[in-house]
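G., the chain you wanted modeled:
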Amino acid sequence: MSSMGQTVSEFVYGPQPPKPPPLKGHPTGLKRTSDNLIIIKMGMIGDSGVGKTSIVERITENRFCSNYVCTIGVDFRVLRSEPYKIQLWDTAGAERFRRITPSFYRGMAVVLLVFDISNRETFNSITQWTAEIRAHARPNHEILLIGNKTDLVDKRAVTTEEAEKYAFDNEMMYIEVSAKSDDNKVINSKILEVINKYMSKVDFKG
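Predicted structure as tokens:
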């Protein structure tokens, strides 16, 4: 596990971030920090090579590095965005590591499911990933389907329409990004929108 999880980064988003639903009382099944932030466990899932770690870097640092190697195990980051403290888990997607990932689904409120728009096989894999998420993540979890590498427009192998249809049919939100060239504000605002959607379904006590 990376030591990056010890650092809390401010979550950067667009000029009009989605407003959270009313969050009065204690959220059932979720914890709060000592400064009253709601802890949201969020996972990054998908095949090896789709750019999960690059998206994490774009989300947290707004940068791109071209020399990433396959993530071994799990990298862990912490993001702060009132009223949330987001724990972001970058889970290895290679088949030889797939056996370690089910335990990391547990407790996840939001899952970022990533495929490469220039690699048809990675899109075909999302059906299996979806089944695993549904089986192991927190009840009422939300999935944001992310089509990465839109900068490879000439190599596109998955159309926007079919990805949108998959997302619609499986009750997910969908966004296309380029971790290489896009600013992080658009994707971060979408992530907040998905978190808010999840929180709108959570029961509060007290």
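The longest strand covers residues 38-46.

Shout if anything looks off.
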